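Table 4 source record.
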Amino acid sequence: MIYHTPVLLHKSIEGLKIKPDGIYVDVTFGGGGHSREILNYLKNGRLVAFDSDSDAMANSLNDKKFMLLTQNFRFLSNNLRFHGVPGIDGLIADLGISSHQIDIPERGFSFRHDAMLDMRMNSAAKKSAIDILSEYSVQKLSEIFRYYGEIRNAGRLAGRIDEFRKTKRIERVFDLVNLVKPLTGRGGENKFMAKVFQALRIEVNGEIENLKQMLIQTVDIMDAGARLVVITYHSLEDRLVKNFMRAGNFTGNIEKDIYGNFKVPFKQINRKVITPDENELLKNKRARSAKLRIAERI
Protein backbone atom coordinates (compact mmCIF):
# COMPACT_ATOMS: atom_id res chain seq x y z
CA MET A 1 0.00 0.00 0.00
CA ILE A 2 1.22 3.49 -0.85
CA TYR A 3 1.35 5.43 2.40
CA HIS A 4 1.51 8.84 0.76
CA THR A 5 2.46 10.18 -2.66
CA PRO A 6 4.85 13.10 -2.05
CA VAL A 7 3.58 16.34 -3.56
CA LEU A 8 5.82 18.63 -5.64
CA LEU A 9 8.66 16.24 -4.91
CA HIS A 10 11.26 17.35 -7.45
CA LYS A 11 10.52 21.08 -7.22
CA SER A 12 10.72 21.04 -3.42
CA ILE A 13 13.96 19.02 -3.34
CA GLU A 14 15.44 21.32 -5.97
CA GLY A 15 14.43 24.24 -3.77
CA LEU A 16 16.45 22.83 -0.86
CA LYS A 17 19.65 23.24 -2.88
CA ILE A 18 21.15 20.23 -1.11
CA LYS A 19 24.85 20.08 -0.26
CA PRO A 20 26.27 16.52 -0.05
CA ASP A 21 27.74 17.16 3.41
CA GLY A 22 24.88 19.31 4.71
CA ILE A 23 22.48 18.78 7.60
CA TYR A 24 18.78 18.72 6.68
CA VAL A 25 15.46 18.33 8.44
CA ASP A 26 12.18 16.88 7.17
CA VAL A 27 9.61 17.93 9.76
CA THR A 28 6.74 15.99 8.13
CA PHE A 29 8.18 12.53 7.40
CA GLY A 30 4.91 10.64 6.72
CA GLY A 31 5.64 7.98 4.10
CA GLY A 32 9.23 9.16 3.73
CA GLY A 33 9.00 10.28 0.10
CA HIS A 34 10.80 13.58 0.53
CA SER A 35 13.32 12.06 2.95
CA ARG A 36 14.27 9.29 0.52
CA GLU A 37 14.95 11.84 -2.19
CA ILE A 38 17.05 14.02 0.14
CA LEU A 39 19.18 11.02 1.13
CA ASN A 40 19.95 10.41 -2.55
CA TYR A 41 21.83 13.72 -2.57
CA LEU A 42 23.72 13.24 0.72
CA LYS A 43 27.17 11.67 1.00
CA ASN A 44 28.58 12.71 4.35
CA GLY A 45 25.55 14.74 5.36
CA ARG A 46 22.77 14.04 7.83
CA LEU A 47 18.96 14.02 7.74
CA VAL A 48 16.73 14.31 10.80
CA ALA A 49 13.01 13.68 10.31
CA PHE A 50 10.01 14.38 12.56
CA ASP A 51 6.51 12.90 12.68
CA SER A 52 4.12 12.86 15.62
CA ASP A 53 2.09 10.01 14.11
CA SER A 54 3.48 6.71 15.39
CA ASP A 55 2.24 4.96 12.20
CA ALA A 56 5.00 6.77 10.31
CA MET A 57 7.64 4.79 12.19
CA ALA A 58 6.84 1.79 10.00
CA ASN A 59 8.30 3.77 7.07
CA SER A 60 11.61 4.59 8.76
CA LEU A 61 14.62 4.39 6.47
CA ASN A 62 17.61 2.13 7.03
CA ASP A 63 20.40 4.62 6.41
CA LYS A 64 23.17 5.66 8.79
CA LYS A 65 22.73 9.27 7.67
CA PHE A 66 19.07 9.24 8.78
CA MET A 67 17.24 9.59 12.10
CA LEU A 68 13.44 9.64 12.63
CA LEU A 69 11.98 11.20 15.77
CA THR A 70 8.39 10.56 16.91
CA GLN A 71 7.97 14.18 17.89
CA ASN A 72 5.83 17.14 16.91
CA PHE A 73 7.83 19.66 14.90
CA ARG A 74 6.93 22.43 17.33
CA PHE A 75 9.72 20.93 19.50
CA LEU A 76 12.18 21.22 16.62
CA SER A 77 14.92 23.25 18.28
CA ASN A 78 15.06 21.30 21.55
CA ASN A 79 15.21 17.96 19.75
CA LEU A 80 17.99 19.05 17.41
CA ARG A 81 20.00 20.42 20.32
CA PHE A 82 19.48 17.19 22.28
CA HIS A 83 20.84 15.17 19.33
CA GLY A 84 23.86 17.40 18.85
CA VAL A 85 22.70 19.37 15.81
CA PRO A 86 23.89 22.99 16.22
CA GLY A 87 22.62 24.33 12.90
CA ILE A 88 21.04 23.10 9.68
CA ASP A 89 21.39 23.74 5.94
CA GLY A 90 17.77 23.21 5.01
CA LEU A 91 14.31 22.28 6.22
CA ILE A 92 11.31 20.92 4.34
CA ALA A 93 7.71 20.84 5.57
CA ASP A 94 4.93 19.18 3.59
CA LEU A 95 1.98 20.33 5.67
CA GLY A 96 -1.48 18.84 5.81
CA ILE A 97 -2.81 15.36 6.18
CA SER A 98 -1.28 12.26 4.61
CA SER A 99 -3.13 9.92 2.25
CA HIS A 100 -2.62 7.15 4.81
CA GLN A 101 -4.42 9.10 7.52
CA ILE A 102 -7.32 9.92 5.21
CA ASP A 103 -7.66 6.38 3.89
CA ILE A 104 -7.78 4.67 7.30
CA PRO A 105 -11.46 5.12 8.31
CA GLU A 106 -10.89 4.61 12.03
CA ARG A 107 -8.67 7.70 12.18
CA GLY A 108 -11.81 9.78 11.58
CA PHE A 109 -10.21 12.27 9.19
CA SER A 110 -12.47 11.62 6.20
CA PHE A 111 -16.17 12.48 5.92
CA ARG A 112 -16.59 9.67 3.38
CA HIS A 113 -16.32 6.82 5.90
CA ASP A 114 -18.34 6.32 9.09
CA ALA A 115 -16.08 5.93 12.10
CA MET A 116 -15.42 7.50 15.47
CA LEU A 117 -14.59 11.22 15.17
CA ASP A 118 -10.99 11.00 16.31
CA MET A 119 -8.79 13.19 14.05
CA ARG A 120 -5.73 12.99 16.30
CA MET A 121 -2.47 12.82 14.36
CA ASN A 122 -0.79 11.72 17.57
CA SER A 123 -3.05 8.97 18.92
CA ALA A 124 -1.66 9.58 22.42
CA ALA A 125 -2.99 13.16 22.49
CA LYS A 126 -5.73 13.80 25.03
CA LYS A 127 -8.37 15.66 23.01
CA SER A 128 -10.21 14.26 19.98
CA ALA A 129 -12.81 15.86 17.71
CA ILE A 130 -15.49 14.20 19.85
CA ASP A 131 -14.30 16.16 22.89
CA ILE A 132 -14.30 19.45 21.00
CA LEU A 133 -17.82 18.94 19.66
CA SER A 134 -19.01 17.96 23.14
CA GLU A 135 -17.24 20.52 25.32
CA TYR A 136 -16.67 23.74 23.36
CA SER A 137 -19.13 26.60 23.69
CA VAL A 138 -21.19 27.73 20.70
CA GLN A 139 -19.04 30.86 20.46
CA LYS A 140 -15.78 28.90 20.47
CA LEU A 141 -17.06 26.41 17.89
CA SER A 142 -18.17 29.31 15.72
CA GLU A 143 -14.70 30.89 15.94
CA ILE A 144 -13.01 27.62 14.98
CA PHE A 145 -15.20 27.09 11.92
CA ARG A 146 -14.89 30.71 10.84
CA TYR A 147 -11.11 31.01 11.31
CA TYR A 148 -9.82 27.51 10.54
CA GLY A 149 -12.45 26.51 7.98
CA GLU A 150 -13.22 29.97 6.59
CA ILE A 151 -16.91 29.06 6.76
CA ARG A 152 -19.23 32.05 6.34
CA ASN A 153 -22.22 30.64 8.20
CA ALA A 154 -20.07 29.39 11.07
CA GLY A 155 -22.53 30.70 13.65
CA ARG A 156 -25.41 28.70 12.18
CA LEU A 157 -23.24 25.60 12.03
CA ALA A 158 -22.18 25.96 15.67
CA GLY A 159 -25.81 26.54 16.71
CA ARG A 160 -26.96 23.43 14.87
CA ILE A 161 -24.26 21.35 16.56
CA ASP A 162 -25.34 22.72 19.94
CA GLU A 163 -28.99 21.75 19.33
CA PHE A 164 -28.03 18.25 18.20
CA ARG A 165 -25.72 17.55 21.15
CA LYS A 166 -28.48 18.37 23.66
CA THR A 167 -30.09 15.03 22.83
CA LYS A 168 -27.20 12.98 21.46
CA ARG A 169 -23.42 13.02 21.82
CA ILE A 170 -21.72 13.60 18.45
CA GLU A 171 -19.31 10.69 18.27
CA ARG A 172 -19.32 9.36 14.72
CA VAL A 173 -18.40 10.86 11.36
CA PHE A 174 -21.88 10.39 9.92
CA ASP A 175 -23.46 12.02 13.00
CA LEU A 176 -21.64 15.19 12.01
CA VAL A 177 -22.15 14.76 8.26
CA ASN A 178 -25.92 14.33 8.61
CA LEU A 179 -26.42 17.34 10.86
CA VAL A 180 -24.24 19.53 8.61
CA LYS A 181 -25.91 18.54 5.30
CA PRO A 182 -28.81 21.04 5.46
CA LEU A 183 -26.29 23.92 5.56
CA THR A 184 -24.18 22.87 2.58
CA GLY A 185 -26.28 24.07 -0.34
CA ARG A 186 -26.82 22.11 -3.53
CA GLY A 187 -23.66 21.13 -5.35
CA GLY A 188 -21.33 22.34 -2.62
CA GLU A 189 -21.66 19.49 -0.15
CA ASN A 190 -18.15 18.07 -0.45
CA LYS A 191 -16.43 21.46 -0.37
CA PHE A 192 -18.38 22.57 2.70
CA MET A 193 -17.82 19.26 4.48
CA ALA A 194 -14.09 19.47 3.74
CA LYS A 195 -13.97 22.89 5.41
CA VAL A 196 -15.78 21.59 8.49
CA PHE A 197 -13.43 18.63 8.86
CA GLN A 198 -10.39 20.80 8.18
CA ALA A 199 -11.38 23.22 10.94
CA LEU A 200 -11.86 20.44 13.47
CA ARG A 201 -8.62 18.69 12.49
CA ILE A 202 -6.63 21.92 12.87
CA GLU A 203 -8.09 22.52 16.32
CA VAL A 204 -7.60 18.93 17.50
CA ASN A 205 -3.94 18.94 16.50
CA GLY A 206 -3.07 22.58 17.23
CA GLU A 207 -1.76 22.84 13.68
CA ILE A 208 -1.62 26.62 13.34
CA GLU A 209 0.19 27.21 16.62
CA ASN A 210 2.57 24.32 15.90
CA LEU A 211 3.37 25.80 12.48
CA LYS A 212 4.04 29.23 13.97
CA GLN A 213 6.33 27.79 16.65
CA MET A 214 8.28 25.75 14.09
CA LEU A 215 8.75 28.70 11.73
CA ILE A 216 9.93 30.99 14.54
CA GLN A 217 12.57 28.43 15.52
CA THR A 218 13.98 28.22 11.99
CA VAL A 219 15.50 31.69 12.38
CA ASP A 220 17.88 30.46 15.10
CA ILE A 221 18.67 26.97 13.81
CA MET A 222 19.25 27.75 10.14
CA ASP A 223 22.74 28.75 9.02
CA ALA A 224 23.28 31.53 6.47
CA GLY A 225 22.31 30.28 3.01
CA ALA A 226 20.07 27.53 4.43
CA ARG A 227 16.83 26.90 2.55
CA LEU A 228 13.33 26.82 4.03
CA VAL A 229 10.91 24.85 1.82
CA VAL A 230 7.22 24.67 2.77
CA ILE A 231 4.24 23.10 1.00
CA THR A 232 0.83 24.28 2.20
CA TYR A 233 -2.69 23.13 1.36
CA HIS A 234 -5.04 25.89 2.50
CA SER A 235 -4.99 29.67 2.53
CA LEU A 236 -4.59 30.03 6.30
CA GLU A 237 -1.32 28.07 6.30
CA ASP A 238 -0.10 29.68 3.10
CA ARG A 239 -0.71 33.19 4.42
CA LEU A 240 1.35 32.51 7.55
CA VAL A 241 4.22 30.99 5.56
CA LYS A 242 4.16 33.77 2.96
CA ASN A 243 4.24 36.51 5.61
CA PHE A 244 6.96 34.79 7.60
CA MET A 245 9.23 34.33 4.60
CA ARG A 246 8.64 37.92 3.54
CA ALA A 247 8.95 39.68 6.88
CA GLY A 248 10.01 37.24 9.58
CA ASN A 249 6.64 37.62 11.30
CA PHE A 250 3.04 36.59 10.70
CA THR A 251 1.59 40.00 9.87
CA GLY A 252 3.77 40.44 6.79
CA ASN A 253 4.81 43.94 7.89
CA ILE A 254 8.57 44.40 7.48
CA GLU A 255 10.17 45.99 10.53
CA LYS A 256 13.21 48.27 10.64
CA ASP A 257 16.12 48.41 13.07
CA ILE A 258 17.20 51.59 14.87
CA TYR A 259 19.18 52.67 11.81
CA GLY A 260 16.23 52.35 9.46
CA ASN A 261 17.43 49.14 7.82
CA PHE A 262 14.88 46.45 7.04
CA LYS A 263 15.02 43.50 9.47
CA VAL A 264 14.25 40.33 7.57
CA PRO A 265 15.75 36.90 8.32
CA PHE A 266 14.98 35.41 4.89
CA LYS A 267 14.96 36.32 1.24
CA GLN A 268 12.23 34.80 -0.90
CA ILE A 269 13.48 32.53 -3.66
CA ASN A 270 10.13 32.32 -5.42
CA ARG A 271 7.95 35.39 -5.01
CA LYS A 272 5.32 33.70 -7.14
CA VAL A 273 3.95 30.57 -5.49
CA ILE A 274 4.81 27.23 -7.15
CA THR A 275 1.93 24.83 -7.85
CA PRO A 276 1.72 21.30 -9.31
CA ASP A 277 1.68 21.00 -13.09
CA GLU A 278 -1.00 19.16 -15.08
CA ASN A 279 0.98 15.91 -15.17
CA GLU A 280 1.23 15.76 -11.39
CA LEU A 281 -2.44 16.61 -10.94
CA LEU A 282 -3.42 13.77 -13.26
CA LYS A 283 -1.41 11.32 -11.14
CA ASN A 284 -2.34 12.75 -7.74
CA LYS A 285 -5.63 14.64 -7.36
CA ARG A 286 -4.83 15.43 -3.73
CA ALA A 287 -2.06 17.73 -4.95
CA ARG A 288 -4.52 20.21 -6.47
CA SER A 289 -4.47 22.66 -3.53
CA ALA A 290 -0.70 22.44 -2.87
CA LYS A 291 1.40 25.61 -2.86
CA LEU A 292 5.20 25.61 -2.57
CA ARG A 293 7.21 28.51 -1.15
CA ILE A 294 10.99 28.68 -0.78
CA ALA A 295 13.15 31.11 1.18
CA GLU A 296 16.84 31.39 2.05
CA ARG A 297 18.30 32.37 5.42
CA ILE A 298 20.23 35.63 5.15
